[in-house]
Amino acid sequence: MRDFIDPKVVSKLSGLPLDARIPMIGSVSGRHRSPTRGSSLEFSEYRKYVPGDDTRRLDWRAWGRSDRFYIKEYEADTNLRLCLIVDVSGSMNYGIDGTQEEGNRKIDYARKIAGTLAYLAAFQGDAVGLYCAGTDFRREIPPKRSGAHLRFILDELGDMECEGETGLAETLHQAAEKISQRALVVIVSDLFLDPESLRSCFQHLRYRKHDIAVFHLLEQNEIDFQFDRPVRFVDLEGAAPMLVDPTTIAKQYRKAVQEYLEQIKQITKDSVVDYRRVGIEEDHGEVLARFLLARKK
Fold first, then answer.
1. What is the three-class DSSP state of 271?
2. Domain boundaries of the chain, sorted by first residue
3. What's the pLDDT tens digit per position in 72-91?
4. Can you state the angle between helices 246-270 and 196-207, rounded to 10 degrees?
5. Which string of b and e fits 167-202 if b means at least 16 CB within 10 Å?
6. For 165-200, what is each residue's pLDDT tens digit?
7. Cβ–Cβ under 8 Å, residues 43 and 232
8. Which helix (H) or strand (E) holds 7?
9. Top-level class of domain 7-19+80-295
């Protein structure tokens, strides 16, 4: 276990499965629906017999009623690929009340979300991969199923450092091409970019048949803008600092933020993305519990 994985949270969530919302394609038997047909206990549908079909799957009762041959189809179950994409741009160093202290930053919260999901997925026998997204992929760990691989993922999460500009849109397009088989793609980011640039990213991922979930990390002051005296704002992604009198821009700022959040909400809705707006002041265990319960079959 790592310091960003709370055993109490893992114990609490271990009874909740991490389910995909769409059928998955995997190489081993598992708990997730597959688009292919196979032999399992869950009946899917009848279809007409064609020469070459396995006669053991003929439904003789249907033949007795209709004098026609029908084959029983069943849902095949497979394993899940969980691909975690964590934003490691400079803005992820922003923390509660504007601090950059370790333990209170967005990146620290992202570690908790990604690390706990990785642990839960591996625990139920699914493959886990990790992609660190800066201006491009700084680290790529394709999904695999093993305890050693999980330790590798957790080590990389612990060593992540945030710097530079956001290149999330470009890296999501890369992810759509690099992740070859259907996967649950979980994006953990502050989405510090033009919302409209995300639309084509999500559509690209959806075109590749991926199930997409987004944890949008925000700090409350980023929304409320509760400053009552001149403040020097520092751009964590490299631009020049600005000295601002908040009282002169507060109204316009809050309006712009609300428009931005509405855009994000509409784009994710249009793209059928499982969108979660999360305050980094919230308990991550409760956030994950709501996420898992909402996806439960």
1. coil
2. 7-19+80-295, 32-78
3. 766 544 478 999 999 999 99
4. 20
5. bbbebbebbbeebeebbbbbbbbbbbbebebbbebb
6. 889 999 999 999 999 889 999 999 999 999 999 999
7. no
8. helix 7-13
9. alpha beta
